[in-house]
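Worked example 2:
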Amino acid sequence: MSKRSSSIAAPQVEPPKKQRLVDRESEAQQVIAAESTVDETPKAKVLIPTEAERAKIRKFPLLAFTAPYEGGEFYYERECYDEYYHLVSKELVSGATKGPGGLVGRDCVTVSGTPGIGKSVFYAYFFERYRKEHPNTWIIAVAFQQNQVNKLSVAAVGKEPVYYGSDQASRQLLQEASLEAVQWKETEEEGVTDKRLLFLCDGSPDMTRRQCVVFTDPNKRWRKVSRKLYCDYYMPLWTLDELQEAATLLNYPISDDLIKARFEKFGGVARECLSLDPVVSKKAERDLTKQMNAIFDPNVLRKLLLEHETSHYLLHYVPEADRAFTVPQLASEFVEEKLQERMLTKSYEQREDLRNLIESWEGP
């Protein structure tokens, strides 16, 4: 698959002296067909994983999640998880915030990226690994919905995590758990000198806490907060090889051909590419087609790109080398091809407007 760019390659022609008029009604009839021709019937797989492959499969810990995970009780550990774990852990220990005893780490680190790539799965990985490597850290994990406490997990030092579902979790319960953790932290214990309290947030929280890691989709409200902290990291899209290996090792009844077809349509987004429900992928496919058919001028595209539910069908976030900044990329070969077709019907000025709009996109 060729590497896509945010720059759309317009036809190599000089701007005409007089632009033709486009018949909107006739153009609207050029509907993009997006029905998949790949057989989506579940297919059994024979799996005899190697020891190294088995190590990539992990069981989810008892943890508060914003949305239920539809893929079962196990998840696939991506190669990038180790890199991002170290990036975030380093910020928590040796960031720029100075306290009485020296550098005490960042107040808040944000892990973000294109919706559907599994930031909540990385949240589970981070929770489990950090708890193992920092046994004197009390972890409070909170799932937020619409900035409100939805679920809660409290992992006190030396104890098994305690989970509170949506019928129990509340802001008051979070405050009580926080107070208990602070009291524990301030109590002196013989031989224990590195007591810490860490908040993990699945979804953008109502406020920042000292110290916390936020795992969230990009959104305007939280971006206003995180930009002031200068500590955002963006996770990468999935590769086709990763998606196919994950499906094989997790024993998902999805063929490599089907994953490839979905990848070419949706790009490196696991939510659509690894969906176990064909209805979900079909709905996403039709939604994508609807958005592509709606693009007739820059004003329509601008509206689509500013809406959270539609923008990420068209453009994805690609992290730069430092992982702290991103560049926009067309979501897939399908999107690139169909947008090119749309641009062929536009005037030179309209093509430039569309290109500039895409290149300046920062997210909804």
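The chain has 14 helices and 13 strands. The first strand starts at residue 57 and ends at 59.
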